[in-house]
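Fig. S4 source data, part A: sequence.
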Amino acid sequence: MPSVSPNTLDITHRTGLAVIAISAVAVLLLMGPNEPQSTRIDSVTNARDTTSEFESSVDSALAAWRTNEVSADSAPKQQVVNGWVARDLLEVIAHQNNFLIEEVRDSRSDAAWHTRATVGMLQVRDERLPWLLVLLIAAIGWFGITAPRRS
């Protein structure tokens, strides 16, 4: 094996480590995280506008309550009227819940649904870490190959 002067080996050693360090800085500065990809389920864009249906159901239940409350002249009659309006409003809530369950089922069957996605979660992918790990391994290898040997 040909003999290499210690000065040449030291220059090669330092130059290689400097190149790896510059590469690491370039990776950190130039390779940023990708744009966040929203996996949010957005049912606002649904073509079915059922908000007006639910509002009209609530309005009709409250109108019936006002009409019946006028004729309720005693406490027992008022309790009955209040029970009726409570039942009507609970029915509206049940319909709303069924609508929301159907919306979630529809969105799960959509091609864009990801099983790991949660409502409102953003996924950001950062490619810098694997590249920095590769550069670290290269630096360790370079240091091991070109380090000055002590005799």
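Fig. S4 source data, part B ends here. The mean pLDDT is 75.
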